[in-house]
Amino acid sequence: MNKNKQSDAKFHQMKQATVENSNQKLTTNDGVPIYDNNNTLKVGDRGPSLQQDHIYFDKLAHFDRERIPERVVHARGSGAHGILEIHEDISEYTCAKFLQKGTTTPLFTRFSTVAGFKGSTDLARDVRGFSVKFYTEDGNYDLVGNNIPVFFIQDAMNFPDLIHSVKPEPDKEYPQAASAHDTFWDFISLMPESAHMIMWAMSDRAIPRSLRMMEGFGVHTFKLVNKDGKATFVKFHWKPKLGVHSVAWNEAQKLSGFNSDFHRQDLYEAIEAGNYPQWDLGVQLIPEEDEFKYSFDILDATKLVPEELVPVKIIGTMTLNRNPENFFAETEQVAFDPGRIIPGIDLTDDPLLQGRVFSYMDTQNYRLGGANFHEIPINRPVNQKHNNQKDGTGRIDILKGGVSYFPNSKASGCPYHAMLKGEEGFQSHEQQVDGKKVRARSDSFADHFSQATLFFNSQSEAEKQHIINALSFELSKVNDPKIRERQVAILNQIDADLAKKVGDNLNITPPKELDELTLKFARQNHPNYPLKVKKNEISSSDALSMKVKAGEGTIKTRKVAFLVDNGVSKASVDEFKKALEKEGAEAVLISSKVGPLTYQEGYTENIEHTYLTDPSVCYDAVFTPGGKSVDALKKNADYYEFINDAYRHCKVLAFAKEAESLLDRSFVEVDKGVKLESKESNWVESFINTMKLHRIWEREEQRKVPS
């Protein structure tokens, strides 16, 4: 064979290597065949993961280095400084000093989306990261969580696959920050363990009104350990003082166009204005002896512990009171790691948590340029660090002396073990571990649908319809009909009515049984799947719905658009504005042009917001004052687009008596969310009380108004 033919043959081989793999064994990067790509190596099927799991480490180390310089996941984020104040005594359960009654601990919180790149929109339908770094006297403690209490997968081995599926498709590099495409739903439809999380992700929880108005969860079950070494299982909760609220899907799409930084700006401006966001810190405490008490496994990250079974005990309050001075130095460089724990808190054998402990540390080492990322100011512990590490890339501290090892005598044995002088130091909770070395999944993790059904049953009718709409939208974006049908089969295991309504929108009759391919993958973890599962303790939970009950809401920090023009009545504006500000809300005047506005009474005011810059989606409610301005508004198409959109998105609207005639040219119909001065003597108070409900979701059904 001549050189040209040899070259052609080599090129042909290389070209063949780029063809999509088919009928080939899964292998490591070294070509070693992989027997099980779903489970980390554990001691027994429910025990801790092993450090010798070279296949997992190889897979995750590659994944952690796939994006540079932004985070692989949670790239789009916003952060703020604050404090945690503890006001309840839980010393019976933990010796963690920062959790003792009366303590105040500085902290930094970062909120984020998961799937999108750093420049993506804040309003994507996505999980939100909710991570807090506590600068305690015993070192840094990171509570790395989300705004949803469960996750898509049970074992960390599948994490790269999950993220690869939701990221832009590798051959196209789109869609950006979106799950509505083939690769994501292909993965999900083959992973029935994702069923519960999908219900949350397709609900309004995935499009929050504000970062200040979403719950936070530690997701995993952790351990609290007291001074006697006794452990108690714990779930961490953050409950926002302002309530839990969302935006409508159509509203989120429009917001992304008008202001893709909506959440980031909202958080920053609230703190600058002194409207400090607050969350109550709550814990669910489960005695060690109750570990196997429930129908679900508390170590399964796709399950939650219903508050009806284990109430959330509120122990403190977090307040965010200072914005970063340099976004990159603080928000972008802050490094979170669920393995950063302190005395009084410990990890459990949750296989997803076990894997995260390696992955997060490995990611930060890579992303921030080396092992000294802890010396970056935002990551420094307040009690300083003392060890024998003096070298490495990105070193900031200049450490003196000729000793960099332990034990030593040349530096008088320093730094010394805490135990040598009878001082406190971190000790892992003593736990009996015994089992065969296996790649397997505990059968106690095999119930994939009961809690998905619980979540759906717990929603209001409007929330259920939003889930149906979201699933219909997402699956309509999927091109492969087999993927759509597989997913509808999964929905049918959750709720038959849900599956039928989504199926109707896709022209699919819901299959009664799971697809054979889905069963094949499920049986790789549980050979006898589906197994008989325990009966759920409860059928619905009020804590899982976002519906606001009458009298429970607040309008504090909400923005109300006052739609004005020259000749508007100052008396009408002032009456409404005064009542709103008394409740902590903000009135924002919007007109056709920026600059001076002349009131009917002759006063002038400078206008900073117009219809061109501020659409209705940026506001929580709308008021049209009275005065001679009504004639100008009747001729203003932008005005009508504003009130029609607000009505469509189920917001509360109010009209002064002189402005009521404007309704004739709109499609706004009077309902409990439309307040008219001529109809109610206490109409301003009625407007405020109705605003506290957040939305008039019934309007969607009554008026057939899609939101």
TrEMBL record:
Residues 27-414 form the Catalase core domain. CDD domains: GATase1_catalase. The keyword Iron applies. Signal peptide: none annotated. The keyword S-adenosyl-L-methionine does not apply. Its EC number is 1.11.1.6. Belongs to the catalase family. HPII subfamily. This is Catalase. It comes from Soonwooa buanensis.
